[in-house]
Amino acid sequence: MRRTAVVVWCAMVVASLAAGPAAAQAPRSLVVQTSAEPPGLDLTASPASAIAAVVHYNIQETLVKIDRQGRLVPWLAERWHTADNRNYTFFLKRGVRFHNGREMKAADVRFVFQRAMNPETKHPHPKHYASIRDIIVTDDYTVTFALRDVDASFLLNLARQGSVIYPREAVGTFKSEPIGTGPFTLAQWVRGDRIVLARNPDYHVPGLPKLDRVTYRFIADPNAVLAALKAGDIDASMFGLGPEHVGELQKDPRFRVIVGDTTNDVILAMNNSRKPFTDVRVRRALTHASDKREVVRGAMFGLGRVLGSNVDPLNPYFVDLAGAVPYDPARAKKLLAEAGYPNGFDAVLRVSPQYYYTVRTGEVLTDQLKRVGVRVRIEQIEWGQWIARVYRQADYDLTIIGHAEPWDINNYANPTYYFRWDSPKFQALYAKSEATLDGPARRALYGEMQRLLAAEAPVVWLYVHPRLAVTKAGVTGIWKDLPLPALDLSEVAWAK
Predict the structure, then answer these.
(1) Mean pLDDT for the stretch of residues 238-243
(2) CA 68 to chain centre
């Protein structure tokens, strides 16, 4: 018996050695880096893309989803129907359960959107639901949205981060404990260090997610990101890889670098309600004084596409206006003189170092604006202060930030948005575009809006921030392009 046991043991050792690493099971966990810790986890309270990177499509989902190709596809609703483009009936997927175990029903959908439409909720994007006149529940799995009029963005708005579906009973916990229907549940949040997601064993899509555990680590400095990658402390960098490191990592077989497109439009925003930016000549002067290609070279090591208006190249209605207001310092000086500032003026540029590109871009622009007499002092503030002072109170002269939401031209039709740009002409064009379903007609309106934005220069459009991600070799399922500011990890896995 002793000899038999030894023979069996030896056979097992030989077999395992022969099988080698390929026989080992692929890892089931992933550590990902993002540059910013979310200020909270409630998508119905804040537009911060840092929240969407964790919650949207991972913890909480929507009736309609934007897939990796940028297409609108049914999700929590298995299909929808409309006969007149004013009444949309959604047929919910059966058997979908919230993380608390309760089945999702049509009444939950109605509650979610009635709450979003309630001014007391202070939803970050109430205008996304302004066209909804009524929400009718027919049975547990059928719900109809009755619109006041045609709304060309209605389906798109249902896929946005503010339209996630959740149970009524969980509303009070969202800031720290969001509950939804997603492939992952929130397992842990150690403030200032990490967020951990765990696999949802009852997820409604068979075979997903492929990971058991995802850990988010918050590292803002690109050099620290590179060090963490090389040390093996993180498996993937999703937001925050420095463009200066791309070439080095592309040569390293331990890593896979992903360079793609995004909808993240980086701008130099001007407070249009504060002098001298109330004068269109001053705003145009700042655009003429900005050498955008030099900005991309200096701040992004040449990675990024120069922009001339709000609409990004992933949008089917994109018009390339990069050269509409060309770099022309002499013209900038002339416009400043015409506006009453022959010797230029002083201004403060508020940026948040948590997003490295804002500081780098600001440093390049500050030098360029100085050449035409605009003396800019950079003031670095924490992200929470930026949200409170710049975004909510419009307490600033200039700021730099990326706007990651797709189809967000509506911001310029909102005079209370932090740009504080009030153009009745633009507002009328936007309203008309939202009531136009015809493709060529809507495309023409979008072209007209983009040209008006370029002419009026409410901000200086700089560049589209590229999709820069890096993973350890063997990680699969990461989206190449980002048609919205989400980080869908449901299909991510390690190669076997």
Answers:
(1) 90
(2) 13
